[in-house]
Amino acid sequence: MSRLLKLAVGLLAGLLLAGGIFSAGLAIGYIIPQFRQTGPIEQPPSLPSLLPPSLPGPSSAPPSTPIPEGDREAMMQPFWEAWSIVHKQFVDQPLDDTELVRGAIQGMIDALGDDQSSYMDPDVYRQANIPLEGSYEGIGAWVDSESAYLTIIAPMPGSPAELAGLKPGDVVIAIDGEDMTGIDGSLVIRKVMGPAGTKVVLTILRKGLVEPLEFEIVRANISVPSTESRILEGEIGYVRLFTFGQSSTNELRRALRELMAQDPKGLIVDLRGNGGGFLSTAIEVASEFIPDGVVMTEHFGDGRIQTYEADRGGLATEIPMVVLIDGGSASASEIVAGAIQDRGRGKLVGETSFGKGSVQNWVPLESDGGAVRVTIARWYTPNGRLIDNTGLEPDVVVQRTDEDVLNGRDPQLERAVEILHGG
Asked: What is the pLDDT of residue 43?
């Protein structure tokens, strides 16, 4: 099965809003493969025959109980009856058969009851695959582009999004006054992007508030490092991961070597506001703190289970540690934090994480030029926990309020230091 995984959350969508990708080439999840087929569609889209078809047989991921061909045709008969009725009786003729078929596809996807599965018609899919050409200009935020509306996972530190006051969980319902209802998340991201110095107005819904809020944000050039590290007072090592990109593992190892050379008494790994990135990077990062064994498992609809284990040789597999998480910690961050928590390597401190525990697959429609995105798997922590839509609960809950941020206080970090000092 090809796995053009949609980045839900994480590095790609973050960089898209930073001006350029966790949805790749506009594709979240939160977890993404190292490779993705991209590029414009070469041929104009074409519509398959509108005569009642003999439906195709099972795909590479067949249903557990295939339906006999005759039964499939019988199941489709009501569709073709309805097709005939609207063509004969609907008041506004002629009808656009192409739009009717695409509407039927969308209806089928909607019937799955999964807001992260979707359909892109050819025009939208082409736009979503326009190369980004290395442009990194935008508002600077990690987002979930797979939900019904674009959702802010976390503003990047020091970004226009953070300075404007956007918060994790904010839901974008309009951009520059244009309603985003029903607009694919990839295209919403592109509407947020734009040249540095230009303005964009986001209308958002925020949990706990009845009325929408509006934010006018000036786009900027965004540069996001993968890591930040230092030794805190009390001989505690501190390393923060901003993304799970291709260079993140090497940057983390470099930081860990420098920290461990100073013989710290404990280590704090800060995953707050980290929306995720590459799955392979998540496994590599977890392997720096977990000596061996399971990091996570993926469970597919056909019953297959893919197990990911830690690579041996990590640089910080024995030192006492604490992991900081919050509502902006998603996907790859949750894989790492969940593994550390389940394996007993350290405590989680902070607030409940985002809750992104599913994996999506983009499949182009060869006969149509569009594509469908289907949730193909859910991932579980080593102890078998599914965190999708619920998140990871910290071992020690510590809130960080807006007032704390404005006054430069970090009670979550302070509590982590206390724990490592035996408090």
From this structure: 29
Please give the full DSSP string across 301-326, using - where no structure is assigned. TTS-EEEEEPPS--SSSSS-EEEEE-
The region of weakest confidence among 63-67, 88-92, 244-248, 369-373 is 63-67
Residue 6 appears among annotated catalytic residues: no
Whether the link from the prior residue into 94 is cis, omega within 30° of 0, is yes
Which candidate in 226, 353, 358, 360 is catalytic? 360
- Phi and psi at residue 25, to the nearest 5°: 55, 25
Question: Residue 130's pLDDT band (boundaries 50, 70, 90)?
Answer: low
Identified catalytic residue from 145, 356, 358, 412:
356
Tell me what the pLDDT averaged over the chain comes to.
82
Which string of b and e fits 73-108 if b means at least 16 CB within 10 Å?
eeeeeeeeeebeeeeeeeeeeeeeeeeebbeebbee
In the chain, what are the domains? 151-223 (2.30.42.10), 227-422 (3.90.226.10)
Q: What is the DSSP letter of 273?
A: T
Catalytic annotation present for 329: no
Mean pLDDT on 34-43: 29
The active-site residue out of 117, 331, 341, 412 is: 331
Q: Are strands 396-397 and 141-144 parallel, antiparallel or unpaired?
A: unpaired
Two tokens, residue 221:
């050039």
pLDDT confidence bin for 402, thresholds 50/70/90: confident
